[in-house]
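Quick question, first post here. What does this chain look like in 3D?
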Amino acid sequence: MLTLRGAPALSAFSRQKLLQNIQITLPAVKAIHSCYYHFVDLNADLDPAEQKLLERLLTYGPRQEEEAIPPAGENLLFFFGDTQTWNHFALV
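> Answer (accepted):
Ran it through. Tokens below.
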């Protein structure tokens, strides 16, 4: 299984708004980080040309911001599925 990091899942504005809403209930939360991940089930390793094509296909949207502080914490929330909210599964 190949795992590739994708574009940011939320804009800076959406992350800030979500952070403010979460901090109402959980004031200890200091930051929100989000990005898409792509999981590719392979039958064999990709050759360099295939790898380059896959990376081109999965390059979209705004570039992932370089973060001064890497995400860290005790609680992580992952959403799996597509961008339809009814199709997300949360694991805590």
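DSSP finds two helices and four strands in the chain.
The helical segments are 12-25, 48-57.
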